[in-house]
Amino acid sequence: MTSTITKQDIVSLSTYRQGREEYLEKMIAYKSNRRIQIGENISLLFENRNTVLFQIQELLHSEDLEDPNEIEEYIEIYSGMLPNENELSATLFIELDNQSRLQDLLKKLKGIEHHLSLVINNQPVKAVFEEEHDDREFTTSVHYLKFPFSEAIKNLLVNESADTINVTLQLDHPNLQEKVSLPPITIKSLQKDLS
Description:
Layout: H1 13-32, E1 35-38, E2 42-47, H2 49-62, H3 68-79, E3 87-94, H4 99-108, E4 116-120, E5 123-126, E6 128-129, E7 142-148, H5 151-159, E8 167-173, E9 176-181, H6 184-194
Antiparallel strand pairs: 1-2, 2-3, 3-7, 4-5, 4-8, 6-7, 8-9
């Protein structure tokens, strides 16, 4: 289901701030079911309308923004993260507290955007990254990406039971190989996105 975000979806800053703590708690719980740890320093968050709207609201809150034109600008920028009808959308994070070790890791993982797949019952769906960084010696610590599905793969994911279907994230970078199974609670959340 394709969904958009418009200015009407944005809550005014004063209203948002009144209910922010409760909203934050709910969003942290919601995102925890959609964030997958891929090895020690990499995680992937599956994005949808809820997570993107939250990100916009938080940005307006932290930057104290109420100007309608600037709000419109942020909506436009972040709307690119919304999944289209036959795809899942995600943000990949490469995180390390130590800055010099992070720089080394980003060099080591150059080209990561060619090596990530979502595998559904042995059917791989290659991630399509928003940007490729082949022209430099390192990758970035945040990547936006999509998993575009054929109708058959989408139907397979949506119609199988979350408890029995096998869905894994697979990283097959020359310097780092990881394979992690998605728990049923995450699969259920993704099935909702697609149906």
